[in-house]
Amino acid sequence: MEYIYYLISGIIGVIIGCLGIYFYNHLKIQGTKNQIALMKQEAERDLQSKERDYLLEVKEKWFAEKDMLEKKIFKEKENLQNLEKSLLQQQSKIERKQDFLNRDREQISKKEKEINSLTKKLKEEEARYQTLINQALARLEEISNLNQEQAKKLLLADLENEVRRNSADMEKRIIETAKTNAEREAKNIITFAIQRCSSEQVTETTVSVISLPSEEMKGRIIGREGRNIRAFEKASGVNVIIDDTPEAITLSAFDPVRREIARLSMEKLIQDGRIHPARIEEVVKKITEQMEVNLKEKGEEACFELGISKINPYIVRLLGKLHYRTSYGQNCLSHSKEVAYLCGFMAGELGLDINLSKRAGLLHDIGKAVDLEMEGTHAIIGSILAKKHDESNSIVNAIASHHEEEPPLIAEAVLVQAADAISSARPGARRETLESYIKRLTQLEDLAENFKGVEKAYAIQAGRELRIIVKNEDLDEAETFVLASTVARKIEEQLEYPGQIKVTVIREIRAVDIAK
Description:
The protein is mainly alpha-helical. Among the domains are: about 145-195; about 205-425, Ribosomal Protein S8, Chain: A, domain 1 (2-Layer Sandwich), CATH 3.30.1370.10; about 435-505, Alpha-Beta Plaits (2-Layer Sandwich). Helices cover about 70% and strands about 5% of the residues. The chain is built from 14 helices and 8 strands. Helix 5 (about 255-270) packs across helix 6 (about 275-305) and helix 8 crosses helix 12. The relative contact order is 0.05.
């Protein structure tokens, strides 16, 4: 019985515990639901707040954009109003111009009627005058015994003579005016440049003569069975000429630097006395190395003397080679320095670039240093070398154009032409053979004597002046000036000559009588 009581008590306790747990969980779930409801209410309030803020922001942007659009529309309206006013003004102007054009058309129409009337009258007058002219021509033919064609030829011949005389007089006046203004200034500038520049001229040829201490030395130079002379010619690249000239031998070569190396080497061998193939090769090699240094020093010396800097070392070496190169007997490096000085002096007088002019003058003949190695004229070769070694386009043009193979593009290039002509043409600068000298004088005289009216031509002052005697009856005084100018242009076109040639035309009247 007691056991059943405890069992029922336990069951009731379990039931009460389960009910307690149930009510506890129910209360907990109810609290969670309440908390979720509160959180949902807060979230809804935050969302409503954000919606209000977003709507406010959107409204502000909308109002701002609305203001901007209204301002833009207002501005566009103003522009349209201004454009409308401008169009109205233009339309008003066009209407006024249209009125003017209408009035002009009316006036033109009246003028056309007047012109037509005058044209009709002119045609009538022309027909009347033509009739009178025909009558006059017929009368003139009767009086002069010449038909119309013959009279026309005679009249044209007279007109041609008159036009020739007038053109000759005009050309004479133009030439005299130009000479008065230009020749004086040119002479002053050139004379000033020449006065400030003088240089020693070096006469060289393609051979070098070496004096020997005795005739016995010739045999030592030749060597056993000619081995020494063959070794020397092979090492130096020059020809050794041993002839009957007492105590002297000749070295011959077109390359002046190689010939100079050979000369110094031979002098060294003669002085040393040891002449054999091994020693020859050693001396020639040593002198060649010394010559390379010497070429550089000669080029640098020329640049320093003229105050020219920043020249490529290869170009400096070529300047040194010009020291051993001659043209018509004139030393090329001395000539180049002289041209550079002249260019500088003339550029200073004319207000041009002095440094550019001197640089172009110094480098103008640089092509002559390698003209035995490259194809083409020395002016074109020089311009190619200058361009290849970073010289400016102005220098390249001055070099290429100094013999008029290309047109000069700058004033300094023209100065190089003038300075080159001055340096080459002054007395003593160049030498030429007797045959070429006589040929040049003969060409001058023959060219002048081919012109109509020339009686005789004489080349005088070593070909620097050409005097032409003309026939008095064939040419008048004005035509002599035309002849002088024509002959001068013909000489420029057909002949080659250093410097300039003065053309003098002489026309004289001789009255001759005999006393008996």
